[in-house]
Please model this.
Amino acid sequence: MAPPRGQIRPARYLLAFVAILLGIYSLVFFTGDRKPVPELGIDLQGGTRVTLTARTPNGKPPTDESLQQAREIIEQRVNGLGVSGSEVTVDGTNLVITVPGKDGEQAKRLGQTAELNLRKVNQVVPVSALQGNQPGQGDQPGQGNQSGQGDQSGQNGDSGQGDQSGQNNGSSGSGEQSSDTTPQAVGSRQAPAQDQPDENSQSGDGEQQSDGQQNGNQQSGDQLTRAERIEQAKQLRQSKNPTMQRQALLTLDCNAPDPLRGNADPERPLVTCGDDGQRKYILDPVLIPGTQISDANSSPPGQRKAEWTVNLEFKNQGKNTWADFTSQNVGEQVAFVLDNRVVSAPSINDAIVGGTTSISGNFNQETANNLANTLKYGALPLAFDQSTAETVSPTLGIASLQAALLAGGIGLILVAVYCLLYYRLLGLLTILSLVLSGAVVYGVLVLFGRWIGFTLDLPGMAGFIIAIGITADSFIVFFERLKDEIREGRTFRSAVPRSWARARRTILSADAVSFLAAGVLYLLAVGQVKGFAFTLGMSTVLDLIVVFLVTHPLVALASRSKFLSRPGLTGLGAVQRMGERARAQRKGVNRQQSASNGTPKEA
Model:
């Protein structure tokens, strides 16, 4: 049987809220790490701050547009990695990345230019084959190359292709060709020559130390020297002259900083190193640039591959180029060059016409995910050097957190005392609703930390404290409207549905304004202000759930109980007496009107 118009079944609403609360905390305790602890921001748990200094080929300061584009790409990389509560800001010609918690190592890799190009391998030479050659022996590089070609042909042969079975699309690195994603420093890889351009670049590219010690004029001179080093490296390592290429093979130091990182000419050949520093390559001009990559994802080991790989999907132009190239170059090697380092150089076993391929190497889950995430969002428009990486202490934040908790506790106590003194039983219902609202907010906060990487920081704490006032304001609107109805002469029980119908519109309007303000602030703000806006908007939405499913049903239940609806307990005694006088006055007026209008005339 349906309840009378305006009446509700409180038990159903309360059961719905209990189901929601149980569902939230079931997810909290039985999913993820099962710890009911929210993620904390850098100001509450500490973290890492990395400063990246932009460098340009001509030594001039980067443009604001390129810095903003780089900031957006790095921000996307941070979000793709699930690094929560991070900030990427522009500071002059630097980008400052702030990452909370233990994600500092990931933050240090976020400045990778990630310029991926595909180039055909012209020649590959093990570093060990070049160690016995001297720079003055012009004919020996060729012999070293013969040795390198022998190694390469072995990879392209049957045994090499057998090692390449890990690729599911016909393009894979053999066991010998795969490379680590992290270069290792091995002293035996040093080139014998001492006066090559790249060694000069080694001393010059250590600008992370020298730039911090020199004044502005000396920095300008270093920038000119950097431009000269880039041009010098291009003339040697990107020459089309085979003799110059062989000389570049001998003089290239795989351990030194690469001045061509982010500055190589895609239209010219390139002499470079493998990512593990154990092989040197002569590569043809760029076949497919990284801009033709539409998507990238990592893939775990499977039946046909024994290691993690990074799968790439090309756009239409890259898809056609890749299909034509692989069909015409079966048995040849193609190099995946990331920031001028060969990550993988597999042999082509078959024509690949599907527009997809994969990069194999000595990847684990973390390195494969990082590379896929980096490639997915594109290359940075600038090359960056990591100038500083410092650990941020949470000491100040913890002290601020204690102050915020103290302020929030004092605010809750003041609200509770006011409600108890002014509303009595209704004040007790207000306190119960606030406690249940806090339980819902906390559970949702923990889940958001797991699912979307939301972190609680000091501005977020401020948002929650302000939300206490918004939630209490909703209760007060309802209770004051209830008193107005009783003051007009209605009973407590009959006043509840009428007052709720009118207060509901006011509550919805007020919360809608608060939510819109929080949404606009979230869209326009940057940094930690977003956390304040997010928590304020989330608390506003959860406030509606508590008011509709808890506060209103509890008041309705109290109005139907003779014990709970007693004036001395509800604090509505004075208002009810005013209502009784109003009813008595209306009855007296009605009797007078009836007497004047309905008195029968005597015969």
